[in-house]
Amino acid sequence: MPLMGSPAIFTYQTPLTLNDTLVQNEWQWVMGTGSTGGTVATYESGVAIYKIGVGVETADETLEVKIVADGVTIPATGLALTAATDYACYLTVNAAALTEAVIITAKDALSQDNQGIMVESRNVAVAYRKTTALGANAGVIVVSWGKK
Questions:
Q1: Per the confidence metrics, is the pTM higher than 0.85?
Q2: How many CB atoms sit inside 10 A of residue 75's CB?
Q3: Which residues contact 41 (CB under 8 A, 6 or more apart)?
Q4: Quick one: pLDDT at residue 116?
Q5: DSSP strand E in the chain: where?
Q6: Which of 41, 30, 66 is nearest to 143 (CA)?
Q7: Residue 4 maps to a domain
Q8: Number of domains observed in the structure of the chain
Q9: Which domain holds residue 37?
Q10: Which of 34, 53, 55, 141 lies 20 to 30 Å (CA to CA) from residue 86?
Q11: Is residue 13 part of a domain?
Q12: Do residues 97 and 62 make contact, with C-beta atoms less than 8 angstroms apart?
């Protein structure tokens, strides 16, 4: 039986980056737009997210990254980051709890099992925030992505 339709081909885009001073518990949007409280206002359409990297520049802080795909929020899981260290994100599922989450881990600890496309969806938004207040601190996020 022939395939119906054509496979989705994504064109690689210049990575989205944000290097900004973070305010405790206020979401900063790197893809799409929204409120600091976390409500999405606009999405990027026809997106595949390949990788997300994060970091903090000076004081150690706890960061969270969340992805909203087609109106469904993939919850953020926080991690206390060490300043000037590279971290990567991956999507995980917990079968026992029937949940999924965005996990942050040290880049060197990222398993090959977590190297695939994170999210592919019609409408996507990505945000991050710090949940601690250890000082005036710039947070860094880089999103590698493609667009239909």
A1: yes
A2: 11
A3: 32, 33, 34, 35
A4: 66
A5: 11-12, 16-21, 28-31, 33-34, 40-42, 44-56, 61-69, 72-74, 79-81, 87-94, 99-106, 119-130, 138-147
A6: 30
A7: no
A8: 1
A9: 26-147
A10: 34
A11: no
A12: no
Q: Of the candidates 76, 72, 60, which has an alpha carbon nearest to the alpha carbon of residue 127?
A: 76
Distance CA 62, CA 135 (A): 12
pLDDT (tens digit per residue) in 40-86: 989 999 999 999 999 988 778 899 999 999 999 998 888 999 888 88
CA 27 to CA 127: how far, in whole Å? 6
Q: For residue 120, give both structure tokens.
A: 């592919």
3-state secondary structure of 47: strand
On whether residue 16 sits in a domain, the answer given is: no
Supply 131's token pair: 């949940």
Q: Give the position of tokens 């996020």.
A: 141
